[in-house]
Amino acid sequence: MALTDPNNYAGEIYDTNEMKIDQLKKFLSTYAYRRDEKKEKKLQWEFLEYRTSKNPNTGICGRKSGNICLIVFADDDWINNFNKFDHLPEHFKTDSVTLAWVHGVEEHYMKA
Q1: Which of 4, 24, 45, 48 has its CA 20 to 30 A from that of 99?
Q2: Would you say residue 67 lies in a domain?
Q3: For the stretch 47-84, what's the b/e string if a residue is b when 16 or more beta carbons lie within 10 angstroms of its beta carbon?
Q4: Domain range spanning residue 23?
Q5: Same domain, yes or no, for 24 and 49?
Q6: pTM for the full model?
Q7: CA dihedral defined by 66, 70, 76, 79, rounded to 10 degrees?
Q8: For 76-102, what is each residue's pLDDT tens digit?
Q9: pLDDT digits (tens, 9 = 90+) for 14-56
Q10: CA–CA separation, 89 vs 100, rounded Å?
């Protein structure tokens, strides 16, 4: 199998009963030096709160979100100095990641 879409775990299967080297080479040469360009996306910090995150299956960082989720349980000091962390999304603009923050004191129901 050649993995053609690693973010969605999809690919092309070499589907034949015989393993002839020439056919296998032809199949693999299609993918051997292929280089997909990662698409940039607008990434920003997402605010999570209990009333909008009750259902663990949907929404930001839900089970079905399909990406890695970094959640910061922020205290007042982190929130007051948010501008120090505002550049962080720029580092992940081509990755399948969500950056979210929770006010750790006000949203104590959401503690891990």
Answers
A1: 4
A2: yes
A3: ebeeeebeeeeebebeeeeeeeeebbbbeeeeeeeeee
A4: 2-32
A5: no
A6: 0.53
A7: -80
A8: 888 888 888 888 888 888 888 888 888
A9: 777 777 788 777 777 776 655 556 677 788 898 887 666 666 6
A10: 10
